[in-house]
UniProtKB/TrEMBL annotation:
Boundaries of every DUF559 domain copy: 191-289
Keywords carried by this UniProt record: Endonuclease, Hydrolase, Nuclease
Gene3D superfamilies assigned: VSR Endonuclease (3.40.960.10)
Xref: Pfam families: DUF559
Domain of life: Bacteria
Name recorded for this polypeptide: Very-short-patch-repair endonuclease
Organism placement in taxonomy: Bacteria, Bacillati, Actinomycetota, Actinomycetes, Micrococcales
InterPro entries in alphabetical order: DUF559
GO MF, one annotated term: endonuclease activity
Organism for this UniProt entry: Demequina lutea
Length: 334
């Protein structure tokens, strides 16, 4: 039996106290604190719910990730750790909780009465573990390698980027783990994704753009996460082509959806234009649904801006960014 983590106020009934905590408890704990009769009554009235063999929680909180993780650890006992997508969620690398809580145990251990929402992963080695949100868990970068094949491409890329953003050393750990850990599925794809993040990708959209959209010889010279300073500020560009002084921005729905974000982007684009840098913006939808159009458009713009355009009727702006300017008398009103 685990040590008590919360003690009710004397005189409080189980029905009053249990809904106030998200923790799970062994039946023996609750009977010691209250009585067997109160536990039975709480179960029959729907106040308490059996979440694992011999383990109960408030029905109000029974479906929450926090309660399930707590119950999974109590069910598993010692020499067990939260792993896989559950560890990533606790670390903040996943926004949506997984449908099952993964418990990692030594390979020789046998367990019975597994709850349907628990998955058991048996390992022949002891994984690197840390305390994540107050819970014994497999180190998130290691858990990411374990769960890689079970996550959708966008989820696995986003999770790794989140881990690296929170702790840059996670990249080195993921690199070593992807190479050294035994029995990893999709090891080559895993290593390729780690390499993309090491090359500067900071989101799934950037990984997708590198792998599926801006591919080919013309795009090999693009600088990733290139920082430029202008009179208006300091900006980091998703991709930058030095030959044409063109920035390529990948606009995900999360960070470019609101009016404030739209105004911020307009100011940014104007500041960059003031130093001769043209900004090409591609939306998440276009990048994922129309990659060929994005590729062709970017390639054409880079080609036109890299080649000087001269005309007897127009002037030119000299420098790496050569853009044709029509004379005022050639512009007519509609």
């Amino acid at each position: 039996m685990t040590s008590l983590r919360s003690v009710p106020t004397p005189g409080t009934s189980l029905a009053q106290w249990l809904p106030r905590t998200w923790r799970s408890y062994h039946g023996a704990e609750l009977e010691a604190l209250f009585s067997h009769r109160q536990l039975v009554s709480a179960i029959e009235s729907g106040v308490a719910k059996r979440v694992a063999p011999g383990i109960y929680a408030s029905t109000t909180h029974a479906e929450s990730m926090a309660t399930r993780v707590d119950a999974a650890m109590q069910w598993a006992g010692s020499e067990a750790w939260i792993g896989g997508a559950a560890s990533l969620f606790l670390a903040g690398a996943l926004r949506t909780p997984p449908s099952r809580v993964e418990v990692v145990v030594p390979a020789a251990r046998r367990m019975s009465g597994r709850p349907r929402w628990v998955r058991v992963r048996r390992l022949s080695y002891r994984p690197l573990t840390v305390m994540v949100d107050g819970c014994d868990a497999v180190e998130p970068a290691i858990a990411w390698c374990h769960a890689f094949s079970e996550m959708a491409p966008d989820v696995r890329a986003s999770a790794l980027c989140e881990l690296v953003a929170a702790d840059p050393t996670a990249l080195e750990l993921a690199t070593r783990a992807a190479h050294d850990l035994p029995r990893l599925r999709e090891r080559k794809r895993m290593a390729a994704l780690v390499a993309r993040v090491a090359a500067g990708a900071e989101s799934y959209l950037e990984v997708h753009a590198m792998d599926e959209v801006f591919v080919g010889r013309r795009f090999r010279a693009l600088l990733k996460q290139h920082v430029v300073s202008t009179g208006g500020g300091r900006y980091r560009l998703d991709m930058y082509d030095a030959a044409s002084m063109t920035a390529i921005e990948l606009d995900g729905a999360t960070y470019h959806a609101g009016v404030k974000e739209w105004q911020r982007d307009l100011r940014r684009d104007a500041d960059l234009a003031a130093v001769g840098i043209l900004t090409l913006r591609f939306s998440y939808r276009d990048l994922t649904e129309r990659p060929q159009w994005c590729r062709t458009t970017a390639r054409d713009v880079l080609r036109l801006r890299s080649v000087p355009v001269r005309s007897e009727h127009a002037g030119t702006v000299e420098g790496p960014s050569t853009v044709q300017i029509a004379p005022l008398n050639a512009i007519s009103a509609p």
